[in-house]
């Protein structure tokens, strides 16, 4: 039994509230247990300089935490004047992950800006950000598609992320909260498509190591959790948009 | 009649949700029309270097906007590596205003960190921040007081803020939303105590000017709006904490 | 009686030396008691990117203090690598104030850069900066106008600033020096036009408050001091340029 | 057959020159094909503030590339005034990986600073950095151990890293050079201990995905390459130091 | 004959106004032709961390130009967020030069902060800064000495600086103004003591070279100009303080 | 006799390995005793903005030290977020020196980027950088010339640098290593052309001074050392390229 009474392969309660903000082209508030992230997707009608003239789009992400998302107040990165390595790592991951589920040629020379702002942090903020940002991005691109600015719908598959880890007890569990994350021997983030393909796999044994068989156990735990997350995404997006995504997958 | 059908001296709907976050010692989500700000108050058990050994506390504020709080995406200050002049001006104002309603000696050598994060912006974010931050601070200090860490309750009066302005029609109005704010000839922010004393008055005729009689009209509009805001603060804080504040005022 | 023997409504000795530097299009050394500020106005033949193509000009200001303008040496902002909030607030105020006395369309797509460098500080550096910068700007624009680069003279009225405050004695005084400023309960900066219209009003009761009747007293003190400052500006600018400004006011 | 004629599971020629620099406590020049990295290990007799008093040591890494390590000259991060996200990600990875092979308690309150400076880059600079840095660190710690500053030898196992990927042909290969890396569908970095345990696994399908069976193929390719790298490390370190490490493993 | 009618070995008019500012322990306004620099010397009762406990003092300098000291407005270094290489070079030179004329042990653990702020620039700002800063420093140290805070007077000799150069005509001249400096083939700054010893020699043939005999000619021109500058320094410092310096020289 | 047994006018062993790196257009590893610097020259087909349209080229240099080039680890400038004054001074010197040996018109609108990265430091890193960078630049320009991108060979003479100083014994020596440099009373860097003309002369008596006769002694020591360095450069460059440079000198 886990700290909060969950089964090893049980996610915390997940809720995705769509169109949480009025200004962005797409936005959600994703809640995973006590972790809460506002994800927004903004469409800009140009690409960064290094991509101009290639006829394809770009997806980039920024990630931040409110100072009191955490138990101890964290100093703002704007006050420090620089973004930490952890933040950079996370925002590079979010952008890279989302790009794997989108045909960049189908967006045209546009940039999708993803903003993930963590309102409250209790472990798994980067995976909640990816899962929520996918929904915000789908809403923003649906809008572009419906207003005839795109010839085809650019999303090719569902995409979500979760964390898995090996607790001190040696048990493999899914969706670690902060106390579990701090105590875990191994911590792995898995980003997958709805079809079950890996997009990103980041496993680390901070001051520890893990074996091949533990890896297999972790991956199978992740798969179970992700299956549930895809259902929640579909529910949040509704039947019509979910079908659009499914049809992209078939191509 | 105003853009959104309000009377000149009518505030937008205001709501203050207390204890919005689980980590900060005090927090609220304040909603003023479409403007939404998360305000949190964190207690740190030391003061900045320049105040050490004086036996009194300090209150300081930080203010930020999510990139898509605005209609056009705003670049993050953490990405730019510096805080804009506007942000600095606002966070200095919030801190200064709150300090006027608190006996700093009664806090002891502690710092109250105020964080105002604008989730959605539709005009009046700095005044909403002050009004909400006062409530978050009161909740945090109540906690300190109830756990016997303070000898007396340090808040001496209610404190709230609103904006007033003169529209192109020449009419003085209260609580301008973003379209009104952009079009107004004169824009004034007024911070007041529950007893009707001024704490801060900032009036500016950007590329315009205003007369003494217009000033009088603006101040009376502000007073009316603020009376309503104090009621909403009292309701959010509840009877017991409101009475504590009222008793501080009498001293 | 005040620290330095002045009457409540008496300014310190004010002197404006025009054309203090040889390079700027306009420059002054303004002396207000022991406060000394070099103000220069530079004309640049383009506007910032966000204003291009609008056919109007822009006025922007920068403010700085020499490290030993103050009693204790202040660290240079260039060494710290960033501009403080106080400096940003002041330079935004100077720019905004000056723009209220100029028809930006009449300048064409040009920027007037105002530089206010405080050589010696004894209170009231921001208001001395505004009063001096107005004269430097007038000299620079006169030059443009006389060389036929402008169709009409763009300045529409005189503009000056002073501080007022309420001393511990409860008395309202004008033009506070540094010891008065440090001890005052309320501090207010007033920017006005020669016609007596308000341009900017910034009153603050740092860790204190003020009543409506005190506000009225402060404003009337400001008005008296400003009347004297307009005379000094006229003398510094000379009859011909003063008339040009007066004629702009009439339009 | 690969671009450079190698077999799929064949490493490029690897050479580790120990004690390359005279000043650091440990240093190597590691050459992997045309990739060349100077790795140095410096011992500092204190730990960062957040670890003081815990009685254990810390290992941290910095990574940089000479501007012309690359085909096109890269702007120096010192000139830009900030470290890129890529660099931060790599230096966090190097530090985390090395910490997994060391008992931090056995170092005492000391910091091992690892510096990896890429002289020439042809793919795999982060994995070459880890493989080389392990050797530099072992040399530095051997020194501490031999001068009786440590009670036990703190390294618990060999540690090396390599990259694996899936080429456009669908073939899984080990130790990608730059042209292969740019064209690969999937790119994975694997850090392992001499005992065959995973320390870090980072697989990414940039704008692509990979299946479970491809993952298995990649991991088995990595294992083969790493076996060869451990041999090269042992040769570089010599019998005595290698035995010390082996004995740590047994504990 | 030179642009401005001077003889080759003739300085521009030099004037040193002592105690120009009221706050610093020592200050001057030095005027060299159209070049004007405010130099101030501030005494701080501690030394930088790297010198603590050595029982000796430190002298450090900062240099800056007002934006319109120059013909074209120069962007403020505080706005750019960094100090240029030219500024760094100059402030390192000023500090190093002054330290050569002072017995640092005799100051005790104090720092003399030199601030050189160029109000108007017409060539030779760094040499004017050194010549003026020496006087400001002497005034500040005299003060310390007279108030019995120092056992002996720490200045060991006069110190001044001038520039010399070779014009396009091939003639060696002293004290170049800006047009001469821009056109000169060789530019050399010479810092000397009152006894005729070199403290610093920086000669450069920007995109040009110079011979040994030209070097000799330049040095003799410098010597002549410096002799005049020492006289002007003595006059500014007065007989008593000049004697104090002379007596230090004899030791 | 010197610390390391050298005669006063004897250089340390100097070796220049050409084409040390595969990517830059020209590169060397220069070894001067224990000082080792990688110098590379990169050709960019444009000039900085301030030179566009003038039809001539530019040469600019950057200088850096690996953290453990020094006895104590030096913090990376990229981690500090800024370049130190010492680095700026050195890179400005290198660029200025090299420009004196090149006809910038003959390069066309191209920039030669010089990168000097100190791998190991034992005194004289800036002079070794200049001596090595000249060779790297010659190799890069030879390449341009041979591929017919230049009409004439732009280098007009050999160029090298060395340090000279006066030891505590009063003796003038050439090519100081780090212990000598730290103890020397006077330190001078001399940059000369193959024809014996001065390009740059920087002499400083840190907390000391030097006489005219000492200067003469230093310059003659420098000349002797430089004669040897020009021979080593010629050998490194080979007969053909050396002749090209010699012929440029004649013009």
UniProtKB/TrEMBL annotation, chains A, B, C, D, E, F:
Gene Ontology MF, one: 3'-5'-RNA exonuclease activity
Name of a matching Pfam family: RNase_PH_C
Family: Belongs to the RNase PH family.
EC number of this enzyme: 2.7.7.56
SUPFAM superfamilies recorded: Ribonuclease PH domain 2-like, Ribosomal protein S5 domain 2-like
GO biological process terms held by the UniProt record: rRNA 3'-end processing; rRNA catabolic process; tRNA processing
Keywords: Nucleotidyltransferase, RNA-binding, rRNA processing, Transferase, tRNA processing, tRNA-binding
Subunit structure, as described in the record: Homohexameric ring arranged as a trimer of dimers.
Protein name: Ribonuclease PH
Recorded catalytic activity of this chain's protein: tRNA(n+1) + phosphate = tRNA(n) + a ribonucleoside 5'-diphosphate
Domain Exoribonuclease phosphorolytic: 10-140, 158-225
Gene that produces this protein: rph
Annotated organism of origin: Mesobacillus zeae
UniProt superkingdom: Bacteria
EC class (word): transferase
Residues annotated as binding phosphate: 86, 124-126
UniProt cross-references to PROSITE patterns, sorted A to Z: RIBONUCLEASE_PH
Its biological purpose: Phosphorolytic 3'-5' exoribonuclease that plays an important role in tRNA 3'-end maturation. Removes nucleotide residues following the 3'-CCA terminus of tRNAs; can also add nucleotides to the ends of RNA molecules by using nucleoside diphosphates as substrates, but this may not be physiologically important. Probably plays a role in initiation of 16S rRNA degradation (leading to ribosome degradation) during starvation.
